[in-house]
Amino acid sequence: MRQDTRLSRLLHVLLHMAETDAPLTSERIAAMLDSNPVVVRRIMAGLREGGFVAAERGHGGGWRLARPLEAMTLLDVYRSLDEPELFAFGLSNPAPDCLVERAVNGVLGAEVAAARESLLARFADIRLSDVRQDVALGRDRP
Asked: Where exactly are the transmembrane stretches of this chain (predicted)?
């Protein structure tokens, strides 16, 4: 099953952007991520719409942070990606009248919803500046 790595990749880019005064081109970001500039522009567009980055056109242009890392949370970045699925499994529903299937789907659905809510609450508490501090201290967040 293919994993969606856009959130971690975008966080990586934002932290690098904070370390440079020069704008980063889509081509440079694509090389950093082993991706394609068109994909980079599509992903960065959500951040631009949220006011987190700005794009400068022309010679010397590229992407810049529009807000400091202290003003961005993991939740902000996650939402800029149109809130991709956090969990890779779904519910089976070929027999909606089956009591066993309904019970299984009920418990799984409720627990996945609670886990999603809890994770998003944590995302809201973690600022990108916190992650930058972890980098500066050479530590992984537990």
From this structure: none
